[in-house]
Amino acid sequence: MNRVLVTGGTGYLGTQLIAALLREGRPVRTTVRSLESEAQVREAVRRGGADDGDLEIVTAGLTADDGWAEATKGCEEVHHTASPMILSQDPDEVIVPARDGALRVLRAARDSGARRVVLTSSFAAIGYSPKPGAEYTEQDWTDPDTPGLAPYPRSKAIAERAAWDFHEREGGDTELVTVNPTFILGPALIAQVRSSLGLTKAMLDGTMSAAPRQRFGVADVRDVADLHIRAMAAPEAAGKRYLALADGPTISFLGMARILRDHLGPLAARVPTEEAPGTEPPHLIIHNDRAKSELHWSPRPAETTIVQTAESLRDLGLLDHQ
Ligand code: NAP
């Protein structure tokens, strides 16, 4: 069977996606920056209930052309999850690799005759420019020049726009779909506090003394992986964006802390009980109807995801107090 490429094999999402594909019997190739992470990736994938025998691991970085032609060779399906998920304020560390890396993957996929690329974008590319009513669908775009926008959300808006522009002008026969998750939570397979897991750890360890005043949608990492697979398979998904988040209202960090406290007893004894001072953020309304109606996607409840994030950090020994 045709090998599927997943970029970002060390990632929180990447490892769940690789495991899901392998569990379906699909041979997978993944890219990592260095083969030093190979053993960790294989262990993560096995933790996800998959046999890593059909997993090939190759090297390619977002900031250089090396390795991308070999990585995409023979792959009809390319899932591009790799992108810097870091807090750096330096655009060269965040925006340049996100944008240029996406273009490298799209170019290599086109040149090797891939049928479709499914790119992990973000709600950050959709709803980070304020608008009256704060209600967002796939029709919305974050303006990268929105005042005060941090480099990470800028990187996602700029990279996704660059990807669609490339697709329209030079994409050839290779189709493009984007998956746009909100805040990703849920169990980790790789035993590292990566990406968005740091905030749950900070809550549980008690290093987050007050909950930041922010509202967000929760997307379960397993559901985002599942949406990637659905977005790759469905013919009608070509050329579309899909928001990924749980049903129900968006929540705050204080709301998340309450859920942890209600379900986890002593494990959640240190979660914040108060919000940081400041003004109440807009009550975001974010629609996930497209993924549900067109791709029959069925996300888990946010509460389940939040509780299982904490349990996963505990089970992997990643908390300071257990
Ligand atoms: P993650 O665990 O940090 O994974 C990011 C992946 O990108 C890692 O494999 C990382 O490799 C790779 N990467 C970063 N910079 C790279 C570079 N210069 N060259 C090659 N690879 C590079 O974060 P994640 O949460 O799984 O993120 C996966 C995707 O989901 C990203 O596109 C992210 O923007 C998107 N997303 C995440 C969230 C969220 O809340 N987590 C929400 C919406 C969208 P290394 O291990 O070598 O650094």
TrEMBL record:
Record domain NAD-dependent epimerase/dehydratase: where: 4-239
Q: Which InterPro entries match?
A: Epimerase_deHydtase, NAD(P)-bd_dom_sf, NAD(P)_dehydrat-like
Q: Which residues form a coiled coil?
A: none
Q: Does the keyword Metal-binding apply?
A: no
- Gene3D superfamilies from the UniProt entry: NAD(P)-binding Rossmann-like Domain
* Superkingdom classification of source: Bacteria
**Which keywords does the record carry?**
Oxidoreductase
- Would you identify the family this protein belongs to, as annotated? Belongs to the NAD(P)-dependent epimerase/dehydratase family. Dihydroflavonol-4-reductase subfamily.
Protein name as it appears in the record: NAD-dependent epimerase/dehydratase family protein
